[in-house]
Amino acid sequence: MHGGVRSGPSDQRLREIAAHLRTAFRVSDDHDVTLSDLATAVDSPELAEIYQEIRALQTEQVQRLERLLARIADNDT
Which of 3, 7, 66, 70 is 20–30 Å from 59 (CA)? Predict the structure, then answer.
């Protein structure tokens, strides 16, 4: 590995989803609104589904990082 963790397709997908949500709800980049706040505010099943997809991608990313760190730790012992 060369110098750190590389951005994967899931990172790009998260950015795309966030951009679509900002456009749809006219939320600026610096406005402090969470997706769960938006889902609650509009009571939208579609938005809730997008939020769940984002959470799943984040969980997947954390699991990949945990596996990577475990491999590094195993190599250090």
Answer: 3
